[in-house]
Structures are given as C-alpha cells and as structure tokens.
Write a structure and sequence with these properties.
Elements lengths: L1 H10 L3 H14 L4 H15 L1 H9 L2 H4 L8 H16 L3 H17 L6 H15 L5 H13 L7 H16 L2 H12 L1 H4 L5 H17 L3 H12 L5 H4 L1 H10 L9
Amino acid sequence: METALSAVLNFLGRHEEGIEAARRALELDPSVTYAWVNLYTGLALDQGPQTALRELSQVTPTVLRAMPETGPHDVALLSLRGILRIASGSLKRGAEECRTALELGRADRVSTLSDFTHAHLAIAQYLLGDREDVPISCERGFAITANGEGNTAAYAWEHAAPCRLAAGRGEWAAALEHLHALENRSVTDRVDTAHTSALCAVSRAIYAQARGDHQAMLTAVEPLAQSKTGWARQLQVYWLPLHVRRRPGSRICE
C-alpha cells in the first residue's frame, strides 16, 4: 500500500510525501523493489538527480551487478540509475546503463521499468545525435505499455521522444500528433499529473523552437524556470538550454 502510494505522490508532484511513503514501505520490507525506485525518484524530484545518485551509490556495490544472474531488483535500480544519469546530463553513461538494464531484463524476462527506460534512452539517443535509434526505442517502449506490461504514465515519455524527433526533422504534422497525444493523456486518464504537465511544456517549447517561434518557446519554458524542485528540475537537461538561449546577455542567445 505504501509503495503504491509513494509512486502516485511522486507523479502528482507531492515528492516529499512520496519519499516518506517509500521510506515507510522499506521499513516494513526492504526487499520491495519499487519502494527503492520510488524513494530515489522522490529524492531526485525533491533535491535533484545528483542527490539521488549519491544515495543510490551507497547500495550499488551489493545491489547493482551487471551480470547474467542479475534479478528484477538489480535491473530496476540499474535502469533508474541510467535514467538519473541522463537527467543529470551524463547522457552517454546513462544511455549505456539503460541499454545494459534492458538487455539484462530481456535475458531474464524482466520488464521492470523497461517502458520508462526505453523512453529515456530514446531522448538520450536524440540528444547524443543517434537519431536513427530513436524510433526503435520509442516503438519498443510503446509496445510494452500497450501490451499492459508497463505503466500508463510511460505514455507521456513515449510521446515526448518522437515529438522531439519529428520536430527536429521538420515533420510538423507528426510532431503535433505526438504533442496532442501527450497533452490529452491527462484527459483520457482523468489525471493531470505534474510530470505530464512538465513534459507537455518541454515538448511545446521544443516544437516552437523547431518552428522558429522563439516567443512561444520562452513562454512554454518560463513556468518551468520558476520551479526550483519537482519535475521541472528533473527535466532541466531537456529545457534549460532552450531557456538559456533566450536570456538577454547570454553568450548563446540567438
């Protein structure tokens, strides 16, 4: 019960409560995989991905072992570490850990976090310039979620990545299709989560930048820039460069 509650609270943006719920769950049973995942997710939202990575590193010697016998517990935390590395800007290393986790998960038929992992890997691949791999990662993530093996919250990430790719290619209709699908998630699921709202803002900004509409881009990222914690902070690697480019006096201001 506490584990499920911590996940819901994190996605609603109530990350301090999510952390408390995850810690309560671990006090009852320290072997619950998702309680660990929710704890580090909450820490990343509340204090930044670097803080979460530092605490996660305390368990890596015994829990994170990239070997064939690795189980669901290890795969989930390895996936999360890769995701947190990407969020902290360590794209290459994060992508490598996400790929390793996905390979281990397939070998052991473990789907833990694989939908989110594919989606984050897709965005990292885009930012690293591996554009041809992005659709593959997106399709694999969509397949897992659509088959009911993943979390419906992953749909938001799975639409965000192809929206970015399509916008970068100038495929406006496809980009808008994914953007609208992302915006409609809160309507179809009847849940307006903080993480979906933040992803919508990032995707709107990226689409506006690709169209050369810099005012719309700045308008989209401004609410994120006003937030010091939560999903806006967790997603900084995606939107902060857009905001910096438009700041007066910035060396990279267009």
